[in-house]
Amino acid sequence: MFFLIKFRLLLEQFQVILRYYKTPLFALSDLALGVLYLFSNPYRTCRKFLQTKGFSSIHAYGETPLTTLEHLVNVFQITLNDRWLELGCGRGKTCLWLSLCLGCFVRGVDWVPQFESKASLLVRLFSLPRLTFLRQSIYHADFSWPSVVFLYSTCMSEQEINDLLLPMQALPYQAKVITISAPLTHPHYRLIRSTTASFPWGKTKAYLHEHLKDGAPPQTSLNDFVL
């Protein structure tokens, strides 16, 4: 299984180069991201961080392949007019793609210091005004402004997801919420549709929901994205 996953990751990167390196700024950013992690494995980085925090489940890191992300964007009709919030963005590769290839406003949230610092370095290095990274817990994210929330919920317990739904009450009416592996079962969310999503470890389902209750008025202007 280990070698199969490695092969799929290699094949994915080959597809990324063929399909997305036509956007020069994304190509530069992705290459720079690879250099930043040349001697730093993100899976190991996340595992060590979770160990220092005393978590028993320390293998929770995962990345959404860009080819899978493009599939979700197309099927769920995400556009450049959307404001995307990614909870647990890791290295920020998906955020880079959404900002530079799709063109929407993106904010990535992760509490692992190395992930945020390196991703923010790329934002400053390439002057990316539509992209922001914040070092914070996903439970402390600002949910008043996004039109789309993406949650890689595969490794989350039911209790963790329920706890997250409390701050997510601030979401605007009809904001979209995308989850991986399991849908949200809460009266404030209507399941719109699902689709198959491919990951290096196998296939699962991605779910698109609509937030049915109007939350707090937005407190964050799009101007806040400009560095």
Overall, the morphology is: globular
Query: Residue share in helices?
Result: 25-40%
Quickly give the structural class. alpha/beta
Spatial strand sequence of the major β-sheet: 3-2-1-4-5-7-6
Main β-sheet description: 7 strands, mixed
Radius of gyration: 17 Å
CATH architectural label: 3-Layer(aba) Sandwich
Per DSSP, what share of the residues sits in E-state strands of 2 or more residues?
15-25%
Give the CATH class. Alpha Beta
Taken together, the total number of domains comes to 1
Spatial gap, N to C terminus: 43 Å
In short:
With 227 residues, the chain is α/β, with parallel strands linked by helices. The protein has helices at residues 2-20, 24-36, 42-52, 66-75, 93-102, 113-125, 158-165, and strands spanning 83-87, 105-110, 131-135, 148-151, 176-180, 189-199, 202-211.
Word description of this protein:
The chain is built from 7 helices and 7 strands. By secondary structure, the chain is of the alpha/beta class. It has one domain: Vaccinia Virus protein VP39 (Rossmann fold), CATH 3.40.50. It has a 7-stranded mixed beta sheet, covered by helices on one side. Helix 6 links the parallel strand 2 (105-110) and strand 3. Helix 2 (24-36) runs antiparallel to helix 5 (93-102). The longest helix is centred in the first third of the chain and has 19 residues, at 2-20. It is globular and about 45 Å long. The termini are far apart.
